[in-house]
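Supplementary Note 2. Why include the ligand at all?

Several targets in our set were suspected to adopt different conformations when bound, so apo predictions alone were not considered sufficient. For every target with a known small-molecule partner we therefore ran a joint prediction. The input for NAP is given below.
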Amino acid sequence: MGTTGTHNHEIYDVVGIGFGPSNLSLAIALEEHRANVPEHPVKAAFFERQPAFGWHRNMLLPSTTMQISFLKDLATFRNPVSRFSFVSYLHAAGRLVQFVNNQDFFPTRQEFHQYLEWAASGLADRVSYGSEVTAIRPAQDTGSKTPEHLRLEVRDAAGGVRQVRARNVTISTGLVPRMPAGVARDERVWHSSEFLEKFHGLDPNELKSVAVVGAGQSAAEITRFLYDKLPHARVSAVIPSYGYSVADDTPFANQVFDPAAVDEYYFGTDQAREAFWHYHRNTNYSVVDDEVIRDLHQRSYEEEVRGSKRLYFLNLTRVAEVTRNGGDTRLTLNSLLDSEPQELHVDALVFATGYEGMDPARLLGDFDRHFLRDVNGRHRVERDYRLVTATGPSCGIYLQGGTEHTHGLSSSLLSNIAVRSGEIADSIVLRRAEQEQGGARTVEVAGVAGRA
Ligand code: FDA
Ligand code: NAP
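The joint prediction is reproduced in token form.
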């Protein structure tokens, strides 16, 4: 798809905002949907603000591995014979046999990135890169009624703005980097999401002392990377806990990411939902893979044996203040083990302090008031991932991400994207049939007869 042209006239059945794994998976689900026939295609377009496909490129650190099985790819759980599966990719890349010999369920992030790029290239005709969606508005003024279609503003890299119309939108814009309050990012103070780009922007010889804040997977991976890449530098890990905690990926706990867990979470009581978080937050948040923890400890122990130390773990410690002065960054640290604040001077500081969930309100602007919220002020979301409107369905705003409060722990992860995309594709097709027929009829969705 070009960046100019026919958008003004066309009304798409669905426009996807963002082309990360979630919408890539949706593009595949629509492509493979049995209702998507040449005489009545599901018209879909996707807009991605990056100039080309990229999945957390700034965290593509050497040797880092996926945190899900290769079978939780873009399609397999929905369609095990999809031509967009990871196994198909391995076959196309001529590595299927070697992959099996390698006997590892968890590919490197580098290899999974290659897989995602390969899948994205197979769908390039429906994606516009370098295209940021800046607003979603009703296409016509319908007062308090939900409009029949939506108008999206899309800005290209040169600053040009164009309008696109759609009956449905899927917002899949991803996680939002979180910095501690009052700390600004700059060329020496980074969030983990911009790590490699910032790191490569500086001369490594200038980095004699660096610090990493946080005790999650990003923090541990970056600490290990800096220690290995900067053999002359002091590396300080500022961690809020006493030590890194292991990510629970054992088989029973891992069931929280199963497709069936989404129903149990969605239709469960408040108490059940709370229990999911209480018992299983440590499957994903503020935790680190066993192998990375052991790697770091090994480096620390080898220092003890050698009698030379440059890797420091500042436990039970938080950053109270960051003061910048040219190349120097001064941290004021509060440790629960020390009554006095400590000072640390570094040449670069990385906040691996996690992410906020996706919030659709930013794109919806004033239009957001059409959508209902729960008693805690969070968007209400249908089981099919559509925002709940005050006036009933017409056009649909679907969310991929930002639904942890309604659909559970897998919302921001890859674990369930194949199934979720299939459910969203089904919903779009069913509702299209309903609107066209103006009444109930039976349509075929995803291999089963469903009532529309
Ligand atoms: P993702 O963030 O990948 O994509 C969103 C896309 O939308 C981006 O390409 C962005 O540029 C684009 N975009 C944003 N706003 C836009 C706009 N207004 N207009 C147009 N485009 C816009 N999970 C897991 O299950 N297993 C794993 O191994 C990992 N590994 C992992 C590593 C790292 C470093 C991080 C930070 C996270 C993970 N995750 C993960 C979790 C992660 O959320 C998940 O892997 C996917 O990135 C989710 O895919 P999405 O497409 O929803 O978001
Ligand atoms: P995270 O798990 O949310 O961890 C954030 C860490 O920062 C926590 O230790 C948190 O401490 C700490 N923190 C937050 N605010 C802080 C503050 N103000 N001061 C000091 N510490 C603070 O984030 P993440 O490590 O970026 O992981 C996010 C997601 O990306 C996860 O799903 C993870 O699995 C994924 N990921 C995957 C890979 C991979 O696939 N290899 C790599 C990196 C990340 P508290 O616990 O006290 O809040």
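The chain has a mean pLDDT of 93. The first helix runs from residue 21 to 31. Comparable summaries for the other entries are listed in the accompanying table.
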